[in-house]
Amino acid sequence: MISESVEQRLKQNLKEIFGFDNFRGEQEKIIKSVISGKNTFVIMPTGAGKSLCYQLPATVLEGTAIVISPLIALMKNQVDQLTAYGINAQFLNSTLNKSEMNRVKNDVISGVCKLLYIAPESLTKEDNLEFLKKAKISFVAVDEAHCISEWGHDFRPEYRKIKDIIENIDTALPIVALTATATPKVQLDIKKSLNMDDSVIFKTSFNRANLYYEVRPKQNAKKQLIKFVSQNRGKSGIVYCLSRKKVEEIAELLNVNGFKALPYHAGLDPEVRMKNQDAFLNENCDIVVATIAFGMGIDKPDVRFVVHYDAPKSLEGYYQETGRAGRDGIDGTCLMFYALDDITKLEKFNKDKNVTERDNAKALLMEMVAYSSLGVCRRRQLLSYFGEQMEKDCGFCDNCKKPTKTFKGKEEVELVIKTILKTEQRFSANHIADILTGNTKDNPAILSYEHNKLEMFGKGLKYFNLEDKFEEEEEEDDEDTILVNKKPKADINADGRISASDKWVSIIRQLMVFGYLEKDIDNYGVVKVSQKGMNYLNDPYSITFHEDHDLDETEGSGEDD
Ligand code: ADP
Ligand code: ZN
Question: What's the cofactor (predicted)?
């Protein structure tokens, strides 16, 4: 398929242009897939070396590769780097004037330009489209491909148009899509939207074994932060905050306490921003305090810690941001402060969104909340979120080092699985939990689905010593069936019921992390039984669960001033 001479040129360019002796991981296979004109889907964590997977093929193939990239800063970084390597790479975006634009276009038409970086907005412009039709394009790379999905953390509506535009240029153009974050749901979205069901997928583990994950309740957060950075004095780190104001405040706080810290957010002058970023890259400052505007495309290998002073909006975002630590393979610490207050704040940000967007954002946020509260190994949780099963605890996260209390369950597991099957795998974890605790008050849908008539209804209470608060009511239906409904006594403590529901939700979530249950990829929030779960029913055994962290007390106590 790939001729020997091409193979040789790949090796040669790898060394002579990029200065690398060997391919890393799956790079060689990916690059060959791209060269042979196949649609290729690359899902690898940040730092794995995705850029080379389209940059190197572009140097070998005839014509120009189009690289679609969401951020001008990102494009500029890459173009600068490639230019330094002696490759003709250019970008086409709104920052260019007319004559620069023409020069770029000439280079593309004449075929000297090997990589053309372009923002999706520019791609949709009519005259750009006309010009691209005239050019010889080798392939299209869609970088940060998760931007296509509303279920990703960085949705860009223009990304949705990419496929139509590509087809407009040339229906046969091969596509390589690349991303560092893609839950199974997002992967499906990307494939659908780019019409690349036939693509070859390269997915490497998302596990970043050298990163230590920790979540702490946000109490006396400033003191905790100072203590943490003191323990890491002289090391490079990033502290993420939610607002520009908070960024300024925390940067100031760190400076006052003798740390070399600089702020970074979109409200600063571009020059100041650039200066602060350079200072960080060149080791003139140890800590950047930033909003999430900072970091995309930043390649600093020795970042030793990433602190989320405020809770992030989604686990996708969290994983991207923490992924900037320890790129050199040496240990890094990822510390997050969690407060219910922050979650409330984040929810307020969503109030101007339309209903679908708001629901999506809320669902992503709730995954974050669950991650913070669950007592299960953080790494197992994160990897499970990205569709990877880890059979054992990692031993290198706070939940592994300082485990919460455990309890065993077997009947409980059977009960959950049976309830999910009985209700035809169409409901959420909350709904299943509410069936088990008979929580019709908070969840009247139970009645409309007649789930109160299921044998499992209310059966989940006894496991949490709440049974005595409920009374059984025998209801004669017909001769054969006697429905035993548990109804709350008149004086039932509603909090007790909610807390029991929470416990069942926790069990369900843990079963998802352990792989007995899984998410329905087409219906967000719906929980299904996996093959492992089905097998379990045939031969059940006792499973160890962890109690959740009690994070409620963080409410209103996030700030210590
Ligand atoms: P990603 O886009 O996956 O986050 P990058 O493409 O930015 O990762 O690559 C991360 C780092 O790895 C860069 O510093 C890059 O120069 C380096 N790199 C990539 N491929 C190789 C290789 N084959 N050998 C050595 N270093 C590599
Ligand atoms: Zn762990």
Answer: Mg(2+); Zn(2+)
DSSP state of 242: S
- Measure CA 528 to chain center: 21
Ligand 1 atom nearest the C-alpha of 27 is 23
* Residue located via tokens 């074994």: 209
Position 554 scores a pLDDT of 60
C-alpha of residue 460 to centroid of ligand 2, in Å: 29
Q: Which ligand is nearest to the CA of 400?
A: 2
Q: Is the CB of 50 under 6 A from ligand 1?
A: yes
The pLDDT of residue 37 is 95
The sign of the torsion formed by the CA atoms of 165, 167, 168, 170 equals positive
- The pLDDT value recorded for residue 522 is 86
Query: Do residues 340 and 554 make contact, with C-beta atoms less than 8 angstroms apart?
Result: yes
Q: Report the range of poorest mean pLDDT among 180-194, 334-348, 439-453, 546-560.
A: 546-560
Residue with CA at minimum distance from ligand 1 atom 18: 49
Predicted TM-score of the model (pTM): 0.83
Question: Per-residue b/e over 168-196, b at no fewer than 16 CB within 10 Å?
Answer: ebeeeebbbbbbbbbbebbbbbbbebbeb
**How far does the centroid of ligand 1 lie from the alpha carbon of residue 109, in Å?**
29
N-term to C-term CA, the chain? 66
Establish whether this prediction's ipTM goes over 0.95: yes
Q: Which residue has the tokens 């059977």?
A: 414
What does the alpha-carbon distance between residue 69 and residue 288 come to, in Å, rounded to a whole number?
25
Ligand 1 centroid to Cα of residue 47, in Å, is: 6
CA 497 to CA 443: how far, in whole Å?
A: 12
The answer to whether the CB of 52 is under 6 A from ligand 1 is yes
Residues 106-140: tens digit of each pLDDT:
999 999 999 999 988 888 887 788 889 999 999 99
Whether 46 is in the pocket of ligand 1, judged by its Cβ within 6 Å, is: yes
List the one residue out of 358, 398, 356 whose CA is nearest residue 375: 398
pLDDT band at 389 (very low <50, low <70, confident <90, very high): very high
Interval between CA 209 and ligand 2 midpoint (Å):
10
At 277 the three-state DSSP class reads: helix
Q: Choose the residue to mutate in 52, 56, 178, 303 for probing ligand 1, maximizing ligand atoms within 8 Å of C-beta.
A: 52
Tell me the average pLDDT of the chain. 89
- How far from chain centre, in Å, is Cα 452? 36
Using CA positions, which residue lies closest to atom 2 of ligand 1?
50
Helix orientation angle between 315-322 and 378-385, rounded to the nearest 10 degrees: 120
C-alpha–C-alpha distance, residues 256 and 253, integer Å: 5
Output the DSSP codes for 449-464: TTGGGSTTTTTTSGGG
What distance in angstroms lies between residue 48's CA and the mean position of ligand 1's atoms? Answer: 6
